[in-house]
Amino acid sequence: MEKLVTKEGTCKYCKQMRQVNIWADATQEEVDKEATNQCDCPQAQDVAKKEMKVDAAITWAQNMLEKNEDARDVAISMIKAVVGQHIAQATMKVGKHTYTFKLNGDGDIVAKREFKDSQEETF
C-alpha cells in the first residue's frame, strides 16, 4: 500500500502555495491539481462547483441509462460537449424516451428525460 505524504503544490488560478496530503509517487502536476482543488480562491471554487455539476449530470445519465451501455456513453459525451460549449444542446432518443442536455441561463446543466407513448396503426 502506498504511503501518504505532505507535498507543496500551487493553485492553478491564484498561484497560492499550499501543503496537501497525497500519495508519495504523485507527480508535481497531480500535487498542483490537488492544491487547486483545495484552494478557496473564487476561480478554483467556480471550477470545483462546475465539476460537481458535471459529475452529478453524468451520474444521473448513468442511472437513467444503466441497462444500455452504448446510450450511456453517448449521453456522457453529450454532457461533456454541452458543458464545454462545443454544442448548445444535445438530444437523443432511446426507445420511447428522449434525453436532452443543455445549459440554462445560469450555466447550470439541464438534463431532461421525456417519455412519449405514441400509438400508430396502419390499416
List keywords for this structure.
123 residues, three-stranded antiparallel sheet, two-stranded antiparallel ribbon
Counting DSSP E segments of at least 2 residues, the number of strands comes to: 5
Strand content: 25-35%
What shape does the CA trace take?
Answer: elongated
Helix content: 25-40%
Integer average pLDDT: 92
| Arrangement of strands in the largest sheet | 3-4-5
Distance, first to last CA: 69 Å
Helices, by number, come to 3
Along the chain, the helix and strand elements come as EEHHHEEE
The major pleated sheet works out as: 3 strands, antiparallel
Low-confidence stretches: none
Give the helix/strand class.
alpha+beta
Overall radius of gyration? 20 Å
Task: Give your account of this protein's structure.
The chain is an alpha+beta fold and 123 residues long. Helices cover 40% and strands 28% of the residues. The strands form two sheets. A three-stranded antiparallel beta sheet has the order 3-4-5, covered by helices on one side. A two-stranded antiparallel ribbon has the order 1-2. A hairpin with a 6-residue loop joins strand 1 (4-10) and strand 2 (17-23). The chain is elongated, with a radius of gyration of 20 Å.
Helices and strands, with pairings:
Elements: E1 4-10, E2 17-23, H1 28-38, H2 42-64, H3 69-83, E3 89-94, E4 97-103, E5 109-115
Antiparallel strand pairs: 1-2, 3-4, 4-5
Helix pairs in contact: 2-3
Short description:
With 123 residues, this protein is of the alpha+beta class. 40% of the residues lie in helices and 28% in strands. The strands form two sheets. The protein has a three-stranded antiparallel beta sheet with strand order 3-4-5, with helices on one face.
